[in-house]
Amino acid sequence: MIFGEIRTESSLNGILSTSLVLYEDKNIIKVKKGTIINQNLINLLLKNDIKLVTCAKLDKDDVLEDKAVYEISKNILSSEQSNLNIQDPRHGRCNIVSNINGLLMFDPEQLFLINSITDEIGVASLKPYSYVKKNKVIASIKAIPFAINKEVLKKIIKTSNNCFKVLPFQKKNVHLIQSRNQNTLEKVLEKTVIITKKRLLNCGITRISEKKCNHDIKSLSSEIQLSINENADLILVFGASAICDKNDVIPNSLKKINGKILRLGMPVEPGNLMLLGEIKNGNKTINFIGMPGCARSPKENGVDWILWRIFCGLGISNNNINYMGNGGLL
Predict the structure, then answer these.
(1) pLDDT the model gives residue 12
(2) Residue 25: pLDDT over 90
(3) 251 and 145 fall within a common domain
(4) Which residues does residue 289 pair with via DSSP β-bridges, in sequence order?
(5) Closest CA to 64 of 52, 56, 75, 74
(6) Taking the model in full, what pTM does it have?
(7) Share of the chain above pLDDT 90, in %
(8) Total domains present in the chain
(9) First to last CA, the chain
């Protein structure tokens, strides 16, 4: 591609680099940046005494910006069900939008490699594992110059293969257990139910089973066992007090029914005092979360990041949680 200032008479089929305001008789004519220069425009430029024009002229190995970003966008979606749509390219930009509520998935290293091929293409996205709503833009592909060399474009397309997808939320049988003591206010328990229902509704969960019990190991473990018997997929427990230790009431209640503690605490604030566990029931694994006190608020916190993964059917390892510290100060 050739870019620069050339004589107006020689600018046919060039791409105008800046917007212009021209006059024809008494009429004002606005010409947009990126306009392909035709003979009529050349004549108009000359009438306005514009003898030189800055533009880009393509050679046979160049691909126009809109076509280039569209070709990248088509390939950058997962070949599996990506749950993503491509918007029509405009001005060298192509946006990718989610067509469902779900969790954005991609490898940050792959995105780094895409952006490392050339500075003539920039691919910007939301963070991996972001919660996205339907019609949310999750990524934007932008061509910097007016055209991209076709060999460079091939490298970008090859590297970008199957980068982005959005995982849908799955239906789960969710049980909410709240323990209480003599200091617990009933209005706090009621508010927690309302907020938890709204939090889960964002993930497509329309109903939950609710239970209340005393804040002691015997009472709480009995309610957990009852939820197991009722085929729960996920058990959420709000304690009358925050979990302070692996030998506290909620962890010991989980251990009493042969549940396993996977993690106590996470490097996300708010949300530090989260307990992650699991319960084996025959061939089924039931997820268990001892909820942090901050989850009584509707504001995003660390437990949301855990819930999104669970509802998308993703496993959660200690390494997954450790990586959450990067950007974990909410």
Answers:
(1) 94
(2) no
(3) no
(4) 236, 276
(5) 56
(6) 0.89
(7) 96
(8) 3
(9) 45
The reply to whether 275 and 181 lie within a common domain is yes
Same domain, 190 and 268: yes
Rounded to a whole number, what is the largest CA-CA distance in the chain? 92
pLDDT for 2: 87
DSSP state of 79: S
Final residue before a domain boundary, out of 168, 191, 211: 168
Same domain, 252 and 307: yes
CATH number of the domain that 158 lies in?
3.90.1170.30
Provide CB contacts within 8 A for 53, sequence distance 6+: 5, 6, 8, 11, 14, 16, 37, 45
User: Is 79 a residue whose pLDDT tops 90?
Assistant: no
Same domain, 182 and 280: yes
| Closest by CA position to 142, among listed 63, 68, 252 | 68
**Helices 150-159, 65-76: inter-axial angle, 10-degree rounding:** 20
What integer pLDDT is reported at residue 302 of this predicted model? 97
Q: Which residue has the tokens 């939320």?
A: 169
Q: Which two tokens stand for residue 13?
A: 């089929």
